[in-house]
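Input chain follows. Return structure tokens only.
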Amino acid sequence: MKRLIILGCLLFSQFSFAQEYSAREVERPKLVVGIVVDQMRQEYFYRFHDRYVEGGLKRLMHDGFMMQNGHYNYIPTYTGPGHASVYTGTTPATHGIIGNNWYIRATDTDVYCAEDSLVTAVGGSEGNGKISPKNLLSSTITDELRFATGKRSKVVGVAIKDRGAALPAGHLGDAYWYDSKTGGFMTSSYYHEELPSWVEEFNNKKLVSKYLDQTWETLFPIETYIQGAADDNEFESPFKGKDRPTFPYDLKKLQKDNGGLGMISSIPFGNTFTVEMALAAIEGEQLGKRGETDFLAVSFSSPDYIGHRFGPQAIEVEDNYLRLDRDLARFFDYLDREIGKGEYLVFLTADHGVADVVNYMKSERMVTSGSLDSKTMLTELDAFVGQKYGSGDWISSFSNQQIFLNRELVSEKDLSLVEMQRAVADFLLRFDGVKETYIADDLRRYEYTTGFKHLLQMGYNHKSSGDVMVIMEPAWLANASKGTTHGTGYTYDTNVPIVFYGWGVKPGSSSRYATVTDIAPTLSMMLKTRLPNGATGQPIGEIVDAK
């Protein structure tokens, strides 16, 4: 009997040790919150720092770990590829999202990055409901978390833009995006057959109508906004129905001519609305409160709409970030109360940066800035190819700064595709604003490790990308007038925040070069999951190895 008792004690001890060891091996935060700010430059952390509150962006900056020299490592830098790259840990060459839209040779049509013709709208208008992650060719960190927990973890993606919700949520999560027709959040049949009750309850609050009944005025006296251009200038694009791009903005008066309920996307209250939806998701799904590690992916889309219209020098952009900062402070305070300070993990990054407004740069005597007339360029290119190879529709498409040649016609005429690629590439170099051109054949045959060739190669997908890639001069944009855009491999488009805060993160910073494709592998190490199956980035040692 004594021997049995001793044996039982030994077995119990081994079982307890195994339980303790297992629990220690899979220790994870209660909740992971991934934040992507659409069109946020790294410099915005510093430029507007003095008027940030203590609990928002300053909290991340001072109490988190920041990679100050974080970059995108491919071209083109757009929203779809950006969100996909952050969450897959790889580039468009592997995950397949090569743009927001891209040309499909087989059908002679364009495809949208989150498009899925086989699904239907749920809880919103049909035209905004054909959305899923079908075009994403790699798993995401959110997928891998679900696999690691036997799908007991919940993943929820929230954004005004559908691609900002669907791509981060991965193949196994739930995604909700804004429907400008109804003023509420919706999903598709890929995720649900009907809208969850908590989303319906949230939509019934009609928050957008309340926001659009307000006036957008500056948080501080307008004369104190001294970080950029004057409020009234010729470089920004005013809202329809308003002669000048100046404060204040009477939203109730302007919304009719500016997309109706869709106008929420273009004002800072869109960020506030997104935070409210994120809080509703936490409550509705009980995220971080169920004994499993859950993941909330939040993308703030409004900064991109505001940035495109006004440009990074605008008071509107500064005011947007001051307001976003306060929204984040409120969000983090909620997480402290409901999840527990130190019990949740946050990362914040952006899907791309943004170029300065061309005409603003010219007004400041930055004569290197300019506008490429792509319509004239394509007209002359068409004439050149026709003269050299005979009449025909030789150019199938020009998108994402890529020329797509009519390969069927090239084959039919028994011509060399590579020779035509080189001829087109050489011809394009004669235009002002075109810095470099590269051909698909070289990107397929050689491996580049530096410079624009490397960035193009990381964005080049063998099945989907074009035949000739165009690199513009620094600070040049195609068809620029008022406002601005992004998409290049220059630092103003690539240098974005990479900051981690909370569970398992020691405060600090590093100026070492890092890439957004390092974010998902870092999370994999911290969450003890598999790496996303296409991941090419590396874990950030300063974060995961800190003792």
